[in-house]
Amino acid sequence: MQNIEQIFVPVDFHQHTDDLADFAIGIANKLGAKLTFLHVAGHVAEAGLYIDEYPTTFAALDEELFGHAQKKMDELVAKSKASCPGCSGLVLRGEAADGIVDYVNDKANGLIVMGTHGAKGIEKIMLGSVAERVLKRASCPILVFNPYKGERGYQITAPLSETLQPI
Asked: Which pTM value belongs to this model?
């Protein structure tokens, strides 16, 4: 079995980001792995493809959103340093699933720990699922955390080698 040396945690800074971060930090600490939070900031400027005149404010808005995402990432990393001293964070540009997969696929001995929003029905059809698209395309193992299932307080009480099984 491959040793997990790096854990990648895609975050969207929505409601369950802290739960996901705590869960991933627990796994990283048990494995002695480095942890990197990832956020992919979309391009508002792509909306310009659908209009006749491209206002320069789209580029400014892109930069503002990227700066806001970087600020949120810095706050998440600072908050996580106490329980995971070696953690880091990275904000990428692009589409979420593509950005995650492109960044992680060339890294060796990695694990992705990501959350799901639990979309179903028409919402999933219309919006898709980032977790599902990453799951289908990533070359490393993925652990999907469902913050909507049951009580909080997931704990890993047995060694991961006994708990996680390959599919």
From this structure: 0.79
